[in-house]
Design a protein that fits this description.
alpha/beta, Macrophage Migration Inhibitory Factor, four-stranded mixed beta sheet, 2 helices, 5-COMe_2-OHmuconate_Isoase, Tautomerase/MIF_sf, 5-carboxymethyl-2-hydroxymuconate isomerase
């Protein structure tokens, strides 16, 4: 926990940049103390077709899926940590957005194969 999902325009963000984004997000969250480094899972998915407010400006959207129960200040801090970490990367997009999503703690399941 958390599960970080990065969506990005495949034509505007290369593989090296995606790797840097994932590593930067992981490090930023771990350094914040909000979650332990070994709890953070991150993945990225490219998209080919998109519109941004009716135009074609590229963007990155990040979902941070966390177990329910954290207060709004904690969620806001997570969002801010992710954005602050990415700022120095000079990504070639018009905007980066972050969405914090609660996963129901009571129904979340996990299996660790032996």
């Amino acid at each position: 926990m958390p599960h970080i999902i990065v969506e990005y325009p495949e034509a505007n963000v290369d593989d090296q940049s995606v790797d840097a984004v994932l590593q930067t997000i992981h490090r930023s969250i771990a350094d914040s103390g909000l979650f332990k480094a070994n709890q953070i899972k991150a993945r990225a998915y490219p998209f080919k077709h998109f519109t941004n407010a009716g135009g074609s400006d590229p963007y990155i959207h990040i979902q941070a899926r966390i177990k329910s129960g954290r207060d709004d200040d904690n969620k806001k801090q997570l969002s801010e940590v992710v954005l602050a970490g990415l700022a120095p990367l000079n990504l070639q997009v018009s905007v980066v957005t972050v969405e914090i999503i609660d996963m129901d703690r009571d129904t979340y399941g996990k299996f660790v194969p032996a």
